[in-house]
Design goal:
Blueprint (H helix, E strand, L loop, with lengths): L1 H19 L26 H13 L3 E14 L4 E4 L3 E8 L3 E7 L6 E7 L3 E6 L4 E6 L15 H8 L10 E8 L4 E10 L5 E10 L5 E7 L5 E13 L2 E11 L4 E12 L17 E4 L24
Parallel strand pairs: 7-15
Antiparallel strand pairs: 1-2, 1-3, 1-14, 3-4, 4-5, 5-6, 6-7, 8-9, 9-10, 10-11, 11-12, 12-13, 13-14
């Protein structure tokens, strides 16, 4: 019995020493990206406030004209192959409800690399270097092996202008993802299909450092990611906040683009002709989903003609 009491006393002293001695405990300070060198204070909010934040951001913008630097990339993480290209200076024009035009310039010489426009349902794409004028529907039923044909202005619009939550159609769940590496609120937008199955349509992420949108993921009906957009470095342009840095990834279409805003004007008005894109003379017209027409064959030169014989 005395021996047991002695062992118990030693155990009690050991446990007490762990609780009282700072030499036996290690305090780890969690620092987060965007929080500076000091320990950031995480903000607290609720689901309804975040839903209203998305609506307010969307409603604040009627139109914008932006000068941006773009870094396009082809490939996908799933196939372990991504090729990045040089910076492209581009101009993005948007006007509600769904007009968008994007003009990209060739690096250094600043000639037009591509020009594409959409009215929300159809799109047009002009590629001067290939003398091709591509038209089609915004809906991409099956991706083309030619990544150029998978580009849609609507993909940019869905990422840059995050649509408000449709409370009549969507069930909304709020997740607090806060651990050692993350500090985010996530809105899960879930919709019940005609087959009665629940599907996640979108997730909208907010940083708990500033409650700004940090990410939006758009899914297809089978749960695959259509668009993964990330937002950072929020700035105020014409009294409207907007992310200065946007990363858009389309893994199924195997392309991505990083957009860095150089200059932006919001709600200054844009004329109708700025969204007009007509087929230039001498270009080949292609409708997406159809094979491009073959180039006309050159006429054969008749024997004895077309050459000048020296006497």
């Amino acid at each position: 019995m005395p021996r047991r009491r002695a062992c118990a006393s030693v155990l009690f002293l050991c446990l007490t020493s762990f609780g009282l001695s700072s030499c036996l405990a290690r305090r780890r300070v969690i620092t987060r990206a965007g929080g500076g060198t000091s320990t950031p204070t995480l903000l607290v909010t609720d689901k309804n406030t975040l839903i209203q934040t998305v609506a307010n951001q969307f409603q604040a913008i009627r139109d914008f004209t932006a000068t941006v630097d773009m870094v396009p990339a082809l490939g996908s993480a799933e196939k372990n192959r991504i090729t990045e290209y040089k910076d492209v200076r581009a101009f993005i024009l948007f006007r509600k409800p769904a007009d968008i035009r994007i003009i990209g310039l060739v690096p250094v010489v600043r000639n037009t690399a591509f020009d594409m426009v959409s009215n929300g349902s159809d799109f047009k794409l002009y590629v001067p270097a290939k003398s091709r004028f591509i038209v089609g529907n915004n809906e991409l039923s099956s991706p083309s092996p030619n990544k150029l044909e998978n580009l849609r202005p609507q993909h940019f619009l869905d990422a840059l202008m995050v649509r408000p939550v449709d409370l009549a159609a969507d069930k909304v769940l709020l997740e607090n993802l806060t651990d050692e590496d993350n500090a985010a609120y996530i809105l899960h937008l879930i919709r019940i299909g005609t087959d009665g199955q629940m599907r996640t349509m979108r997730t909208i992420w907010f940083s708990r450092l500033n409650l700004r949108m940090a990410r939006q993921i758009i899914y297809d009906d089978t749960g695959n990611i259509l668009t993964d957009a990330r937002y950072s470095d929020w700035q105020v342009y014409d009294r409207v906040p907007f992310p200065k840095h946007v990363e858009i990834n389309r893994p199924h279409d195997e392309y991505a683009v990083v957009i860095h805003i150089v200059k932006m004007d919001i709600n200054t008005g844009i004329r109708d002709d700025k969204f007009a894109l007509n087929q230039p003379e001498g270009t080949t017209l292609q409708t997406v989903g159809q094979n491009p027409p073959a180039a006309p064959a050159r006429a054969a030169t008749a024997p004895g003609k077309g050459r000048t014989r020296k006497k």
